[in-house]
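Lecture 7 notes: from sequence to structure.
We start with the chain below.
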Amino acid sequence: MNKSVVIVAGGKGSRMGTDIPKQFLSLCGRPVLMHTIEAFYRFDLHIQVVLVLPLDQQDYWKELCEKYRFDLPVEIISGGETRFHSVRNGLSLVPEDVMVGIHDGVRPLVSGEVLAACYESAERNQGAFPVVPVIDSLRRMTPEGSVMVDRSEYFAVQTPQVFHSNLIQKAYRQPYSDRFTDDVSVLESIGGKAVEVPGSPENIKITNILDLDLAERLIMKKNG
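Predicted structure tokens for the same chain:
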């Protein structure tokens, strides 16, 4: 099946201590978001890329594309009130009967192996999403205090989360609920089911300066 991806990039730079939204921060000399888009084109040269950006960031993005001569095909649509609404807007540009991923704009190091696992598994099922084991000890808060939990029963969820477009578009036509923590939870709310596939520790979400430093080190190591 043909492939699409909705890349959601509506973050700000508050955790970075900067006025520049984190998707536009420099990573090895170019904005984070450009690395993210390129990862999908390395995976599939014919993929449809839909970029969801706040309206007030779109002119700046176009300036960056001119500055860095970034000309990969990208369809841009404005974000919404919440991530849920932004994803819904992005899905409106995705055709029927394709496999569509939904990905964080600030996960620039997603590998071809993770992408292949997600898209191939989603095609056999209703959806798929990458996960990695939890390595820290976990405790659960109770009225009496915290108690230890078995971390082997938990994992951390990454993106892209990939689905049959018809099914996830149907799921996103329902009203918003604060119970939706990610795209899989939206699918599950209408009775759908997505399966886990192995993610990667390198598929980090850049939310602070330490993440940005780590991403630079990983890219430099990969490029020798």
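Points to note: The chain has a mean pLDDT of 95. The helical segments are 32-43, 58-67, 83-91, 112-124, 165-171, 183-188, 209-222.
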